[in-house]
Specification:
The structure is a single chain. This protein is an alpha+beta fold and 308 residues long. It has two domains: 2-63 and 78-107, no CATH class; 115-303, Cupredoxins -  blue copper proteins (Immunoglobulin-like), CATH 2.60.40.420. The chain contains six helices and 14 strands. It has helices at 2-20, 33-63, 79-107, 245-254, 258-267, 300-303, and strands at 115-122, 125-130, 164-166, 170-174, 179-185, 190-194, 199-203, 209-213, 219-225, 237-243, 256-257, 275-277, 285-287, 290-294. A six-stranded mixed sheet has the order 8-5-1-2-3-11. Strands 4-10-9-6-7 form a five-stranded mixed sheet, with helices on one face. It has a three-stranded antiparallel sheet with strand order 12-14-13, with no helix packed on it. Bound molecules: copper (II) ion. Copper (II) ion binds next to loops.
């Protein structure tokens, strides 16, 4: 009897906790409301099944409790019941999976004319690159990565010269414009995740992954790495600032192109500040043929104000 009551209380308590709980998603800041809808559908299906199974178990524990004069029946098969269970389970699984497939299709079908930027992950920071005035990102390869060229842009590719390299870990996006996010990793698996965008995608060494989104409200949002990528995983944070077109353009003007970065490096005035490639110094991390280390100066972290 006590077990039956505990089971019913677990079912009721779970529903009440869900309804009164103060924890819910942070308000959405992108066009991906459909992804929220698919998760809510999964909540409903799994919630109804959870309550039904737990309440039914409680009922059975009470209804078929031990009584001295009662004997159990032997019924190894019940094809009618099995049919019903199979059909209901199939319907439940289809309801949960089908919207996700539609959402995924939309997630990777980039609208024509979308802007694009690249996020490059390495242990344990984010770096960003934008196409310059030609609107095309220059080609890259691991072999080109060095002190002056931390993104590995092919120096012979004319399309790479005007690429805009963000010398901090904060990326800016104009409000209301669709943007394709290209993702590249220099060392291990990482995952680009901005909770308010409801969007995440793995960065896989050796390939370029992507998705797209349209920012729908201004604000400053954290970029997290959602893939356990080493001991410094928790420090792998970036910032994305969504702002009005005019503010975005003003920010863009302050950034340097690949050509300017190269020229500065040649004059010896300034190296790329955020991503520094050097020869085997203390605390260095091996990656391919190059040794990469974190530059402790990450100016944007304190500079940007977070708005949730
Ligand atoms: Cu990571």
């Amino acid at each position: 009897m006590i077990v039956a009551i505990v089971l019913i209380l677990i079912a009721v308590g779970s529903v009440v906790f869900h309804l009164v709980s103060p924890w819910w998603w942070t308000p959405i800041a992108s066009n991906w409301g459909f992804i929220d809808t698919t998760i809510i559908i999964t909540f409903w299906v799994t919630g109804v099944v959870f309550v039904a199974v737990v309440v039914f178990t409680g009922y059975c524990v009470y209804r078929y409790r031990y009584q001295e004069d009662r004997r159990s029946e032997y019924e190894p098969e019940n094809s009618k019941l099995e049919w019903w269970l199979t059909i209901l389970t199939t319907i439940g699984v289809v309801i949960m999976l089908a919207p996700g497939l539609v959402a995924w299709q939309q997630f990777i079908t980039v609208p024509e004319g979308a802007d694009e930027f690249e996020a490059v992950g390495l242990q344990w920071q984010w770096n960003f690159r934008l196409p310059g005035e030609d609107g095309v990102l220059g080609k890259t390869a691991i072999k080109y990565i060095n002190d002056e060229n931390p993104f590995g842009i092919n120096p012979k590719d004319p399309k790479g010269k005007d690429d805009v390299l963000i010398e901090a870990d904060d990326m800016h996006l104009p409000l209301g414009r669709p943007v394709k996010v290209l993702l590249r990793s220099i060392d291990v698996l990482h995952d680009f995740y901005v909770p308010q965008f409801r969007a995440k995608m793995d960065l896989v060494p050796g390939t370029v992954t992507y998705f797209w989104l349209t920012p729908t409200r201004t604000g400053t949002f954290d970029v997290l790495c959602a893939e356990l990528c080493g001991v410094g995983h928790h420090t792998m944070r970036g910032i994305v600032v969504v702002e009005k077109e005019s503010a975005y353009k003003a920010w863009l003007k302050e950034q340097s192109t690949f050509a300017q970065t190269l020229a500065r490096a040649k004059n010896g005035t300034k190296k790329f500040s955020n991503l520094d490639v050097s020869e085997g110094k203390a605390g260095a991390v091996e990656s391919g043929s190059a040794r990469l280390r974190l530059n402790p100066a990450k100016p944007s972290r304190e500079k940007a104000k977070r708005v949730f």
